[in-house]
Specification:
The complex is a heterodimer of chains A (about 400) and B (about 200).
Chain A (H helix, E strand, L loop, with lengths): L10 H26 L5 H30 L9 H9 L1 H17 L15 H5 L6 H31 L5 H34 L12 H26 L8 H32 L2 H4 L16 H18 L3 H4 L2 H27 L8 H24 L10 H5 L4
Chain B lengths: L2 E9 L2 H14 L2 E6 L7 H5 L6 H27 L12 H27 L6 E3 L11 E6 L6 H10 L3 E9 L2 E3 L19
Antiparallel strand pairs in B: 1-4, 1-5, 2-4, 3-6
Helix pairs in contact in B: 3-4
The chains are: A mainly alpha (about 400), B alpha+beta (about 200).
């Protein structure tokens, strides 16, 4: 069977990505004029923080997926591995944008997103200042994004290397797999130190600098990983519909669907555990986090509607719709659920940031969606470009046959 | 149940077995069952078996677990024995979620195990005919039903032609019976091969 090796960007795809990026840039400019100037620019910066960090972590989840499956010596994902590699290329532009936004947040005075920047004699914040300070924040942010990009590049390089120089024998194959395993392990360790711990503390949790939750980083990771799997699914289905990826079939889609299903439940597990422990202990300095998010008989939280809506589309919908075997193998259902999951976790990030900064009122409007559209366009553009650069199937990888005959 | 006539063939690898299953289905012979030492992915599809309904059963057991546990706890803590636990409301839903979840899982999995045993007719002392004892060890056994109108010799040579070895004809009880393997001689009737433990 002759296979279509190289992806050619369809004209409509390019138009859409450019149009969405245009909408994004326009939204950022208008948003900056409307919200970013004056004495309270937090509204503008909160949306920038939400979108840049969310989409950065979602694309970075693709590299985590590659490294996790490499470490597990998984073979099933190889028929579409180049797609996940292409998605991880988007970490470069998104990382630069997120890096700039985060540096602006701590360097430009009076943005009022991170109030730990000026403790003003606050004993708790001064106690945390060994961790929560400008220098450490900047160092860690640049290091995280930089190493994600560098290690991701290394992983892609290892995969690309085989396109020109096939492995001569089984012994070389073993060495190649070992080398992959080592680099994947390095990435995973760094990922554990950043996305699974420090990064969400710095970038998101420190908005409520007095409050803390030990679930928070896992919660952020679960949110972005499930969206990352959804993004991979969307691109795989898109390429299938364009009649690429001949070796990928509903068996692989089924497994991607399982990932979306399982990690939606994992997200809910963390979402609920974080809530239940705080509800049970009922300590005022912890419950303060849920004041704007939950409505109870004694008070009403402005974000409670959004909070429960997010629960429905992030948990109930995947649970009930993706439960059936048939729906995980149906391209239409899987794509629909993938889009729904990404939207749901985008809302999750919205409430994580905005409900802390503006507890009185939900001000979700066209500006937020416009910026999100810009990032979607950017991802489309970057991934599309990356897909054209390399053959779509890593044909010389030692495990490729395992992926072709994959059966669930 | 009834005693029927079967033609039995053996394979020693799963690759030829897949091809043979396809050929048998194409030829129109009635495939009774295939016995393998381990589960083979995709063999059920190749044999044209319908999807198992055990997931639906599992879902229903899960729903049963959720609703029964939630309603039981609601009754206990709001009607029957309301206690003030740490100033929490009587209807303390978040505290019940872990228990509800565990009971849902418990009901779903225990129910599914029992349903599975029922569907496979597995129970203590329930015995079924074994076409080839080595199908629990290293052989793949294909069993084709041989009704009145089917020519036994033709079917046997057909089975040999698709790659089976040790083709033999067996008259076997299709249902189950109660018994004990150490007492039951019926099992080993008509089998030339003896298996020592």
């Amino acid at each position: 069977m002759a296979i279509k090796e190289f992806f050619a960007i369809p004209a409509r795809y390019r138009t859409w990505s450019l149009a969405l990026m245009g909408v994004g840039i326009l939204s950022v400019i208008i948003g900056f004029v409307l919200y970013g100037t004056g004495h309270h620019p937090a509204r503008f910066w909160a949306t920038m923080l939400q979108n840049s960090v969310f989409f950065l972590l979602v694309t970075n989840a693709a590299m985590f997926f590659i490294c996790a499956t490499t470490l597990a010596w998984g073979g099933w994902q190889l028929s579409f591995r180049r797609v996940t590699e292409a998605i991880s290329v988007a970490v470069i532009p998104l990382g630069i944008i997120a890096g700039i936004v985060l540096l602006c947040l701590v360097l430009i005075p009076d943005i009022h997103i991170f109030h730990w920047l000026e403790p003003h004699g606050d004993k708790i914040l001064e106690g945390k200042s060994a961790f929560l300070n400008r220098g450490f924040f900047i160092t860690w942010t640049i290091l995280s994004i930089g190493l994600w990009i560098v290690l991701g590049y290394k992983m892609r390089q290892l995969s690309r290397e085989l396109d020109t120089t096939p492995l001569p024998d089984a012994e070389a194959g073993r060495k190649y797999i070992f080398k992959n395993t080592v680099w994947a392990a390095v990435f995973i360790v760094w990922f554990a130190l950043t996305v699974m711990s420090v990064t969400p503390w710095f970038w998101l949790m420190s908005i409520d600098a007095h409050w803390y939750s030990t679930m928070y980083s896992w919660y952020t990771f679960a949110s972005t990983f499930v969206s990352g799997m959804a993004l991979i699914t969307i691109f795989v289905v898109f390429l299938k519909n364009q009649s690429y990826l001949e070796y990928t079939n509903e068996e692989h889609i089924h497994d991607l669907g399982k990932f979306m299903f399982a990690f939606s439940i994992f997200w809910t597990y963390l979402w609920f555990s974080q809530y239940m422990l705080i509800w049970y202990a009922n300590v005022p300095e912890e419950t303060v986090y849920f004041n704007s998010r939950i409505t109870s008989h004694s008070h009403s939280g402005a974000y409670s509607g959004l909070y429960w809506f997010m629960f429905i589309i992030n948990f109930l919908a995947p649970l009930l719709i993706l439960m059936r075997r048939g729906s995980k193998r149906n391209y239409t259902t899987v794509t629909f659920m993938a889009i729904l999951i990404i939207f749901g976790h985008w809302l999750d990030f919205y409430q994580m940031i905005h409900a802390s900064l503006f507890p009185e009122k939900v001000s979700l409007n066209v500006f937020d969606f416009g910026v999100a559209a810009g990032f979607v366009g950017l991802i489309m553009f970057a991934v599309g470009r990356a897909l054209t650069k390399a053959p779509l199937v890593a044909q010389n990888h030692p495990f490729i046959k395992e992926s072709i005959i994959h059966h669930t | 149940m009834a005693v029927k006539k079967f033609v039995v063939g053996c394979f020693d690898d799963e690759g030829p077995l897949f091809d043979a299953v396809k050929k048998v289905r194409k030829s129109g012979y009635k495939l009774h069952d295939v016995y393998t030492p381990f589960p083979i992915h995709g063999l059920d599809t190749a044999m044209g078996l319908r999807d198992t309904s055990i997931h639906t059963a599992g879902f229903l057991y899960g729903i049963f677990g959720t609703t029964s546990m939630l309603s039981f706890m609601t009754w206990v803590f709001t009607k029957d024995f309301p206690l003030n636990v740490g100033g929490k409301p009587h209807f303390a839903l978040p505290a019940w979620i872990p228990i509800t979840f565990e009971f849902t899982v418990l009901c779903a999995c225990v129910g599914m195990v029992i349903t599975f045993c029922y569907l496979c007719q597995l129970a203590p002392f329930v015995k079924k005919h074994h076409f080839n004892l080595r199908s629990t060890d290293d052989q793949f056994t294909m069993v084709i039903e041989c009704p009145e109108k089917t020519n036994e010799a033709e079917l046997s040579s057909f089975l040999t032609s698709v790659g089976a070895f040790g083709v033999n004809v067996q008259h076997a009880e299709t249902g189950w019976w109660l018994g004990r393997y150490d007492k039951d001689q019926k099992l080993f009737e008509g089998q030339s091969e003896t298996v020592s433990a």
